[in-house]
Amino acid sequence: MVQTFDDCLYLLDGRLKQLTSFNVNVYSIDSFSTIVQNTDMLPNLKCFSLKSFFKFQQYEQIPSLIRRMPYLEHLTLYLCIKGQNRIIDGTCVQDDILVYMPQLHSFTFYISTYIDSGDLRHNISRQHIQQTLIDIGQQNATTIVNRLSRSVVECSIFSLPFAFDYFGSLGSSTFSNIIFNYVT
Question: What's the whole-model pTM score?
């Protein structure tokens, strides 16, 4: 566990050139003590896991980091994103991350977006978001859309089977045919 995303970036600053696997839980992605400008590639990294259980706004920092890992074979993400004017769906994941990962064999993820419903140009459709996952080859994934309040909508996309021990807001969703083996 590291305190800030900067701590994660410092650990991946190129000093650990032989690093092949890196698993990190980040307490706060939004807390920046300094700006780390390292853009060196991490060609030996084959397995990367990034989990942050607290909502954060700096989503663009995640694809920027992952793009430095072109030879990843296994990627795990647990992200809770707020303050965006778009839902992070399959199309975003493909365009922001997967297109840069030609060697990727395994992608385990839970990505939850919290958005002000006033920012939505149209109604969020679970079926539409599910189709974006299918379109990028993520047939073993699903979508849950929750209206948490009059003004906040949460959209979660995640791989199946669910591999994490924490699930964000349950809201009023139904979980037909979804098994949560690890959630307590």
Answer: 0.90
106, 149 Cβ separation under 8 angstroms: no
Residue 181 belongs to some domain of the structure:
no
pLDDT given at position 174: 54
- Measured CA to CA in angstroms, residue 46 lies from 2, 43, 77, 89 at distances of 21, 8, 14, 24
Torsion of the alpha carbons at 116, 132, 75 and 158, rounded to the nearest 10:
60
Range of the domain at 16: 2-159
DSSP reduced 3-state for 51: strand
In whole angstroms, give the CA distance from residue 177 to residue 175: 6
Q: Could you report the per-residue pLDDT of 31-60, keeping only the tens digit for each?
A: 665 566 677 899 999 999 999 999 999 899
Please tell me whether residue 94 adopts helix, strand or coil conformation: helix
How far, in Å, CA of 140 to CA of 6, rounded? 32
Residue 165 in any domain: the answer is no
